[in-house]
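Hi U.,

Before I forget, here's the chain from the pilot set. I'm dumping it here mostly so it's searchable later in email.
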Amino acid sequence: MKIIPACAPKNTWKGTLVEWLVVPLVGGFVIGFFFAQNDLASGNYSGFLESAIISSVFWVVLGNGNGAIVHLIDQRWTWLETPIKRTIIGLIGMFVYTLVASTMIIYMYVELYFGASFIAVVEAEGMLSLLKVPLSITVVVALWFHGRSFLMAWRQSAIDVERLKNENLKSKFESLRSQVNPHFLFNSLNALSSLVYDDQGKAVDFIQKLSEVYRYVLDHQNDEVVDLNLEVAFLKSFVYLNKIRFGENFDVDYSNLEESNENWSVPPVALQMLLENCIKHNEVSNEHPLKIEISKKGDLITVENNLNPINVPKQDSNGLGLSNIISRYEMLSDQKVEVTETEDSFRVSIPLLKFE
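Structure:
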């Protein structure tokens, strides 16, 4: 399951100025004070100022550069999915950037400011000695940015869990409401009463299918996803009930929805909700039969119907069905639900989910 990383918080221009300039300058002077205590003790304030300025330059370049690297890495590798890889790549990225950027700053400082030979200074002082300031800065920066990145990912994960719980509660309400609402119950019982007199065998089948529909909803109402084959079996029971209700005016073709041997999953009652939407928003009559095609292609299942639109009362068209499915997919995957409407058809494609 892929979890979409949290977006970085939006800063005002004042917040950006503080983050990119003020904090690095303050940090640079603190580091400069730590490494230039001898200059202060001897009254060499110009030496302290010089040390503080170069430390601030290091902090601005290393702090902001490493912060950008952390942001880019977070877009590709998340703490929740690949924490070990995220840590290793983050440390390598920051280490390489620190070495390259620090070497360039020291080179310009030695060659341009002092007019000395960079190679000669390295041989005399040692590269490790020259890098003690930038490495100290990088340690502080790494702790800050990686710690903040981890905490933000953890916080977003907690938020996503609560949102998913909320969406599941809405889904449970919608699925139960669509099954137990007076219209559905009245139509089901009306069809059953006719069957009892006309065809007792069909009446028994009808009761069995109606029981299967309610049992499925009750058994899986708390699940985030269900096996595709289970959902399809439930869908066929739901189609059977409506076929009895509408007769030849209602036709559902799922010949291209063969049983899958792969480990595909979908949110529970998602296909039923899409089928219910087709019935709710279209006329089903001898003059305008409703034809629905449900097909599977690759990692998508598509529900497409011809359009015979009717005016649906506001209280019966609250928009929970399709919007709820879209919201649940946003929580479960970065794959999108595709909705396409033409002059004579309405098509919704939902992604199939696979969890390793």
